[in-house]
Design goal:
With 360 residues, this protein is an alpha+beta fold. Helix content is 42%, strand content 15%. The protein has 13 helices and seven strands. Strands 1, 2, 3, 4, 5, 6 and 7 form a seven-stranded mixed sheet that branches. Strand 5 and strand 6 form a beta hairpin. It is globular, with a radius of gyration of 22 Å.
């Protein structure tokens, strides 16, 4: 996280006025058409904002699928309520208001998303043949191809990619909905406390109180320095080398190569499995007994997820005569080694990353 001061007057993300302020003529025309019922004009208006609104919904909800639902519902609400857009602020700010309130409704109904470490202590040795836990609402990976680098606003304290990292999104899940929303709107998107109070229909004092509580929880759960700083220090080539080395070690069944890439306190979790491991000894016991020995042949494709290096794994299937999609593994790095391995099991993750279902 940056060291920028949180004290500032607000104009909204980046001070961008958008339609309703000093908007481009085309946007003003589309706004007028949309308010008169032109659906195509409304689509043109919101298209440039869809990716950032979707990322906001993911940060709030911890699930791509929930973010899809929330964004679709929010845009439907916005379309139906566009005549109520009073133009005191930008269209962008108003859409964030609608999206945030939609997400808060979902948080109230669906509760929070979890990782295995939220549910119990680490296992000391490999848990073999563990069954997935379908009753848990699991945190999911985020395909970050559309998440821009840098800050959403000069006033923001978290980078946009930093704010979709696994540790950050997992920490947000431990906050009540109002604190989660206040933190994201203030420290990721750059809204002022006064603006957030209007957006959330509360007082500025309540927003400031929510921010104080939220900051404490997140600071306790998110490691420092942040992943983005680590990735920049290592450089793209070294980051790719580490991710490739990890994947290749599993493909070759090479425990020595794998252990050389890990920190002593490395963690490995695999939602939707409850079991997780902490420390190189427990992690390697699992690695040797399950993916290296028991699973069969692996192949992989490099990807990025949650602003972090990641690997898409495929496992050989005799019946299919091909390597079938198996998991998206997101790597957390520290000091040039892997400190966190989060393996999201399930073929349903692959379409969102535009990945093939099988490799021949």
């Amino acid at each position: 996280m940056s060291e920028k001061s949180p004290e500032r007057p607000g104009r909204g993300p980046g001070g961008d006025p958008g339609p309703g302020g000093d908007a481009p003529e085309g946007a003003e025309r589309d706004l007028a058409l949309a308010r008169s019922g032109d659906g195509a004009a409304f689509t043109r208006l919101v298209r440039p904002l869809r990716a950032e609104l979707h990322a906001h919904c993911y940060r709030m909800l911890g699930s791509v699928h929930d973010a899809d639902d929330a964004l679709q519902d929010a845009l439907l609400r916005a379309w139906r309520g566009l005549t109520g857009f009073e133009r005191r602020g930008s269209l962008r700010s108003w859409l964030y208001t609608v999206a945030t309130r939609t997400c808060l409704d979902l948080v109230a109904r669906r509760g929070r998303r979890a990782l295995p470490m939220d549910l119990g202590p680490a296992a000391e040795q490999a848990v073999v043949d563990a069954a997935p836990s379908s009753e848990v609402a699991w945190l999911g990976p985020y395909p970050d191809a559309d998440v821009a680098a840098g800050y959403a606003a000069p006033e923001a304290r978290y980078e946009r990619r930093e704010a979709v990292e696994i540790a950050f999104v997992a920490a947000l899940q431990h906050l009540p909905g109002n604190q989660r929303a206040a933190l994201l709107l203030f420290e990721v998107l750059g809204f002022s406390a006064a603006e957030i109070a209007v957006m959330m229909d509360t007082s500025t004092a309540s927003v400031n109180s929510a921010l104080q509580r939220a900051r404490r929880v997140v600071a306790d759960r998110v490691p420092s320095p942040g992943t983005q700083r680590t990735l920049r220090a290592l450089g793209d080539a070294r980051v790719r080398e580490i991710a490739s080395g990890y994947a290749s070690a599993l493909e070759r069944g090479d425990p020595d190569a794998l252990v050389a890439l890990l920190t002593e306190d490395v963690t490995w979790s695999m939602p939707p499995l409850r079991a997780w491991y902490r420390g190189v000894e427990a992690v390697m016991d699992f690695a040797v007994r399950v993916p290296i020995t028991a699973c069969g042949a692996w192949r992989h494709l490099p990807v990025t997820a949650n602003g972090q290096p990641a690997v898409a794994f495929y496992l050989w299937d005799d019946a299919a005569g091909a390597y079938l999609s198996w998991s998206i593994t997101v790597l957390g790095l520290r000091g040039g080694r892997i400190a966190e391995i989060t393996t999201f099991l399930g073929r349903d993750h692959f379409p969102r990353f535009a990945l093939p279902a099988r490799l021949s």
